[in-house]
Specification:
The protein is of the alpha+beta class. The chain contains one helix and six strands, in the order ββββββα. 22% of the residues lie in helices and 37% in strands. The protein has a four-stranded antiparallel beta sheet with strand order 3-4-5-6, with no helix packed on it. Strands 1-2 form a two-stranded antiparallel sheet.
């Protein structure tokens, strides 16, 4: 699958796990987990497990947080 969030790098991978309120996407160097906790009154959540070298996790976290804030506002 391909996920192209505006302002972020395109994510290309396979759907690793899929449920009504959860989607896991596995790429060559990461695992993206989207949690639809909004169905239970909580915020939508995302965890990213990065397995590559030289990853700037703080920048990636901030970029995804800004994207989610603007998309789900």
């Amino acid at each position: 699958m391909r996920l192209a969030p505006q302002g972020l790098e395109t994510v290309e991978g396979v759907v690793d796990y899929l449920r009504p309120n959860f989607t896991g996407i596995r790429t060559a160097d990461a695992l993206y987990c989207f949690f639809g906790r909004n169905a239970f009154g909580g915020p939508v959540a995302l965890t990213i497990h990065l397995f590559g070298n030289g990853v700037d996790s703080a920048t990636i976290k901030d970029s995804w947080q800004q994207y989610l804030n603007s998309t789900l506002a």
